[in-house]
Amino acid sequence: MAKASDVKTGNILRFNGELVSVDEYIHRTPGNLRAFYQAKMRNVRTGKLVEYRFRTDEEVEIARVETNDYQYLYDEGDFFVVMDNVSFEQYNIPKSLFGDSARFLKEGMNVLVAFESEEPIMAQTPTTVELEITYTEPAVKGDTSTNALKSATVETGVEIRVPLFINQGDKVKVDTRTGDYIERVK
């Protein structure tokens, strides 16, 4: 157990039996009252935001979280199978931890996974990925002066919007958080 004064922004705490990540942690000293810590914490499982005031001497449990790079291998039902790049051990990570960005995962890609006592609690894909266009309508010559967009399917099967000059077989950089086209890769 640690004191509330030991907590920092970014720590993972066990709070009311749930794991929460500390988004904001501020020390307050109001005029004639005792000092306290104002915390904004996000539930790791549900994403729900919780606010709480800790006394300076209050005990909190800081969870030991190990975060490492893993290589995405394949999809297996409700799980993604990832491999540790050092020990070559394989782990099943629930798809729900990756969120919406999981649709851009490609075999061999590196992902970030956080474990708390052998249980995966957070997973993150890279912010940008390079994917090949597998299908799109052909570009019409001279139709590149406007900012118009057309639909294109990338190699993971996701449909994104790309500029008119992108052709089938081109590699593009995609933002995994929003699904937006960033640029064409040479």
From TrEMBL:
* Chief location of this protein within or outside the cell: cytoplasm
Q: Among the record's GO biological process terms, what is one?
A: peptide biosynthetic process
Keywords, sorted A to Z = Cytoplasm, Elongation factor, Protein biosynthesis
One example of the protein's molecular function in GO is: translation elongation factor activity
> What Gene Ontology terms describe where this protein resides (cellular component)?
cytosol
Which residues belong to any copy of the Translation elongation factor P/YeiP central domain? 67-121
Query: HAMAP family from the xrefs?
Result: EF_P
- Give the protein's biological function: Involved in peptide bond synthesis. Stimulates efficient translation and peptide-bond synthesis on native or reconstituted 70S ribosomes in vitro. Probably functions indirectly by altering the affinity of the ribosome for aminoacyl-tRNA, thus increasing their reactivity as acceptors for peptidyl transferase.
**Protein name (Swiss-Prot/TrEMBL):** Elongation factor P
